[in-house]
Fold:
Amino acid sequence: MKPPIGQITRLLGAAVFAMLMGTFTAANAAVPADIAERLRQTAGTWQTSVDRQTQMQQLTGNTPSTAMAGEMNRRVYSSMIAQAVMEAITRNPADARDVTNAAINAAPDLKASILSNLSIAFPTMAATFAGSGQPVRPVRVVTAAVPRAPPAARQQAAQQLSEADQVVGETSGDAADYDPLEGFNRAMFAVNEFLDSYLLVPIARVYRVVMPETVREMGRNFFENLNEPVVAINDLLQADFENAGVSVGRFFVNSTVGLFGFFEVAERLDLKEHPADFGQTLYTYGVGSGPFVMLPFFGPSTLRETVGTGVDSFFNPIGYLLDFETRMYLKASEIVVKREAVLDPLDELRKGSVDYYAAVRSAWQQNRARVLRKGEPPPVENLDALFNDVK
Structure:
């Protein structure tokens, strides 16, 4: 007896449905879990930055600078998302379309820029990328809430913006999270991260494996001792004669008894190490920090600290005693030694932060504020001024 036509149809329909569901599940599984999480976090940070830019436009208006910052912001985040897709493709090229669709679904507003970046990186797969994301279904991304103030409060905030920045600077010891160059800074941060991840970190890890901890500590002591003349000069410029004497004593003791600074002997004589640089000197003269800036290759800084670093390079007499090749060798060695010393803290900071750029900026600013205050606690006499609009 032949089975009814309806039963055959239902059986075929069930088979086709099962096949489609199996294909859909396999496609979803093709996106690695760590890549999917990177896409989700980056898209969330992108949306939060868009909300903040919108709020800033409401305060200052749609000026050319805000439009430029918005475009730079778009390029930076589309590049970050594209980099996550590129990493997944290098692991398994067969996942190209699935992971590209996941990226577009995470940040549909950045679709054109993401596909453009991917087509440039993988020109032979341009056709694959061109067919991705059809249709694009926007996904809900959980972001930090950005409160919207009433019109009167926004107008007052715009009028008192410079005053608020000044109070924050006095309270924290320096500029806080005000970052007018954020678009440019994030682009430079991405470049530095690429160079750091693929060049400097591998060298630093090899250095850690090859050299025992005792030798690595000697290396750190050596380069700290080389910088003592710069510290002493800036102490004098700041009229801090007591610390200037300490710096001179440290350099003499560690360079002789400590064998060119490889051994820390001055600490045992109660000659405590302390930081001093020309950026700190300018701070004591009342020079403002200027905007936060992420320098190519050199990392976090401000306009004042950038000038200070350049001046300090002329202060060190060691540079006048050595030839150019030796100075470059010492500088390269110093970079590796210092990068190895912060391998673990930066790894922990990366793992524990949703926005690694913001975390690095905040950590650097807090550390720099402590250096500028020479270890003193931050002043709090103007703290109430931060809450003038809270009644």
Remarks:
- The chain has two domains: 30-125, 165-380.
- The radius of gyration is 28 Å.
- Residues 14-29, 133-149, 156-176, 380-387 have pLDDT under 50 and may be disordered.
